[in-house]
Task: structure prediction
Amino acid sequence: MRGTRAAQRYAKAILSLAKDQNSAEAVNMDMHSISKTVLNSKELENMLTSPVIKNSIKKSALLEIFKDLNTISKGAIDILLENGRIGILHLVARQYIVLFNELNNVQQAVVTTAIPLDAALEKVILSKVKELTGSEASLKNVIDENIIGGFVLRVGDLQYDASVSRNLTRLKRELKDNTYVSKI
Result:
């Protein structure tokens, strides 16, 4: 993806400054908000990447959308505008979140289920992830009806597949190779 190396450099610089000023957590919240908003609004993303729209309009629009930004986050927007890189704002925000999570030893856990998780199940899964990995995790729930039931948990390199579709596939394979069943 275009701009990811630059986004990483900007995110590292923002995180370094935020750590120095003891506001890394506040900037992390801002970056979550920015990433989510830009990702969910194609119009905003198009406006940020448009070469026709002036930087002053982009800045005023961003400051209107994100009214409660930390001064470091506002400064990051200014620097990106000044350097002509405001189009990668959402990439910088996502990269900042990744770096912040690495700094705080928080991993990203992805749970694939057939239906959305409720709060009680999220707590159970997060405690299990902490037990298995020894670190905190942020949880992302992906809905995939093809797994029929159960769940698939991915944390870093680890994957635990307790889905119904996997068990059915395994059972089908065992029955196919079974000499007694094949004679029936």
The CA atoms of residues 38 and 143 lie 22 Å apart. Strands lie at 106-113, 136-143, 150-155, 158-163. The chain has nine helices and four strands. The chain has a mean pLDDT of 88.
